[in-house]
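seq as requested:
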Amino acid sequence: MDLNALMQQALLRHGNTPGVILKANEPTGQQPWEMFVTEEHTEHYLALKAGGETYRGMPTGVMGFIALGMSFFTVLFALDSDWQSAGMMLTFSLALVVPAFLWEISQPLPLPILFNRRTREIYYDHDGELYHMPWDEAQAVACQFMTVGPHSGGMDNATLETVVRRYGDAEQALFISLVPPMGRRLEMQQGLWAWLQAYMDNGPWFDENGQHSESDAHVKEAVEIGKFRLSDSAARYWRIIRGQESNGISKKPRLTDFVMLVLSLMLFPIFKIQDLTYAAAKRRSRGNWPPLVTERLRADGPTTRLIDLEREQGLNV
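C-alpha cells:
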C-alpha cells in the first residue's frame, strides 16, 4: 500500500478545492483545536466519535417520562389501599420502559476511532473488521469546499480523512472521516490534527499551544465543552439567569431564558433517562472490540504494535 499515492489520489478526488496533506511528524501551522468529537480522552487512549446515534436512548426517555407520570397514580392507589390497581399501573409502567431500554442497549453503537498513546496506533472497526495504522506513519488529507443552498446561502465545509489498513491485509485500505465536514474550515481541520499530534506526542495533558502540561485543566475544559448533553440544559439556563454565564446574545437574562429553564426542568427526566440508556449501550458496545485492541487499552497491556504482530505471523503487510 503506497500511502503517499493514496493521499495524492484523495486530493485529486476533491478537484481544485484547497487541500493539504497532513503528516504525524510534521506541524500543521495551527494551534490544537478540539472540535467537539471526543468521546473519551484518557491517559492511555483517545476516542473520537465515529458518527450517528446522537438520539440513542430518546425512545426509552419518552417511555420513562410517561411511566413516571403513571407512578403518581400508582402511589395514589397504594395510599388508598387499592393494591390491585396499583399493581396494574406499576406493571404497565414497567412494560413501557423495560422493553424499550433492553432493545436500545442491545443495538450496537458505532465503535469510536481510537488513538492509542501506549502503542502509538490508530484503531478502527468497519463492519466487524479491524483496521489500524501506526501513528508514526499516519497521514491525513484535509480539503475545503463550499456548499450553496437556497435558504442558507454559502457555507464553508472541510473534510479531514486519514487512511487505515485492514489487519492481516495491508492492501485493503480505508479512508475514514475524523470529523463531520459541515461548517468546518480548513484551518479548523488542521487544528484537530494538531490536537491529535499534541495528544500522541506531548500528552496526555497539554496546554493551548500543544506543549506538555502536568495539569489536565486545559484538556478537560476543551473536551467538556463538546460533551454538552440535553440533561445539562436546566443547569445552564439557571447559570444564565444568575448571571454566571452568558446566553450569547445579552449579558442580562431574557424572558426566553426563563421559559427554557421551565421547559428544561419539565423535560429533564426524558433527557436523563436518555443519558443513562446511551451510557449502557456504549458500555455494551465496547465488548465488540477484538481482544487485540482491548488488551492494548489497559494500563498494563501489551505495547506491541499490530503491524509487528502481522510481521511475526507472516501476514500480508
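The mean pLDDT is 87.
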